[in-house]
Amino acid sequence: MLWHVHGSWTTAFVRGPHTYLVPVTPDRGPDGRGRARTFPWPASVVELSPQELAQADVDLVVLQRPHEEALAARWLGRRPGRDLPAVYLEHNAPQGRINDLRHPVADRPDLTLVHVTAFNDLFWDAGSTRRRVIEHGIVDPGHRYTGELPHLAAVVNEPVRRARVTGTDLLPAFAAAATLDVFGMGVDALPDDHVSGRRFVDLPQERMHDELSRRRVYVHPPRWTSLGLSLIEAMHLGMPVVALATTEAPVAVPDDAGVLSTRVEDLIDAARRFVAEPEAAAACGKRGRAAALRRYGLQRFLGDWDRLLREVTA
User: Fold this and answer.
1) Are 100 and 124 contacting, i.e. CB atoms less than 8 angstroms apart?
2) What is the structure's pLDDT at 38?
3) What is the spatial distance between Cα 132 and Cα 172, in angstroms, rounded to a whole number?
């Protein structure tokens, strides 16, 4: 059992050989979204109401938010970690002062805490809780890059609310350097100077991949994020990437697969060069795709998770 919290991550996770129970509520709110509507999920993902979950044969719970433990105990009649095997999946890098980055499930001998990047594992303080790093995996969309449009593309979800975290304040500089098309939830609320091209709001994954692939360069502006799956997806598509060299990005993007820097001016210059040199952009994108397939392939990801699930339920 797991909640539909992170659509892109779950799209890869549910490709494994299991049955995945996702809660659904009448309002399809945050605690009961059910099956994804913009991602392709297999039939092995089954929606169940809280009442149906009480009768379900659940052998493990994947927790992803602090309040889910109490919610699962109420809906299942069993306490995750104590009466029922459970792991806690942490998607995010911690926020706040370094000495205060205590994880909500720190010092829990009954749980395993799973981080999606080694960077997150380094920064979160989990105390004595067992920890495991299982890096992201991606359902390969295939090499789709054409770069036919001499535009920049960025994917930023909730850019107004998340502001500096997602690098929203950096977008005007990129938009002034070349036509910038922005994708994501809430991009319709961006000021006009942040987007010099088109806005694509919450597209189905298949269409977003097609549209991204037509743009010449993928720009990744977040300052502080676990590791944006949109960055890895862009690499899978064969796009050259320009990204801030923060958190896990320097590990994810090899030197010959894109340009990373903490100097925004360097990134803008790189974006301009890729726009002006389509052959160099395409060659860089091919190297990035090869690197992404090696590190973030679906089978490696599912294999890592299956080994952990067998260990936890043994």
Assistant:
1) no
2) 86
3) 39
Same domain, 164 and 274: yes
In the structure, what pLDDT confidence band is assigned to residue 224 with cuts at 50, 70 and 90? very high
Q: How many domains does the chain have?
A: 2
> Are residue 173 and residue 285 in the same domain, yes or no?
yes
CA dist., res. 245 & res. 255, Å (int) = 11
- Give the C-alpha separation, 182 to 199, whole Å: 5
Residue the block writes with tokens 């449009």: 149
> Is there a single domain that holds both residue 266 and residue 163?
yes
Q: Is residue 144 part of a domain?
A: no
Range(s) of the domain holding residue 32 = 7-137+298-313
How is residue 134 written in tokens?
A: 């299982």
- Report d(CA 74, CA 32) in Å as an integer: 14
Smallest CA-to-CA distance from 223 within 245, 190, 239 is with 245
**Do 185 and 201 form a contact (C-beta atoms < 8 A)?**
yes
The verdict on 165 and 270 lying in the same domain is yes
Q: What is the pLDDT of residues 134-161, one digit of tens each?
A: 999 999 999 999 999 999 999 999 999 9
Whether 129 and 62 map to the same domain: the answer is yes
Provide φ and ψ at 218, rounded to 5°: -100, 125
Residue 45: predicted pLDDT: 98
Q: Tell me the average pLDDT across 152-179.
A: 96
Tokens of 23: 């809660």
Question: Are residues 171 and 83 part of one domain?
Answer: no
Interval 288-303: pLDDT, tens: 999 999 999 999 999 9
Are 16 and 122 part of one and the same domain?
yes
Inside any domain, residue 52: yes
Task: Supply the pTM of this predicted model.
Answer: 0.94
Q: How far is 205 from 236, CA to CA, in rounded Å?
A: 13
pLDDT at 175 (0 to 100): 98
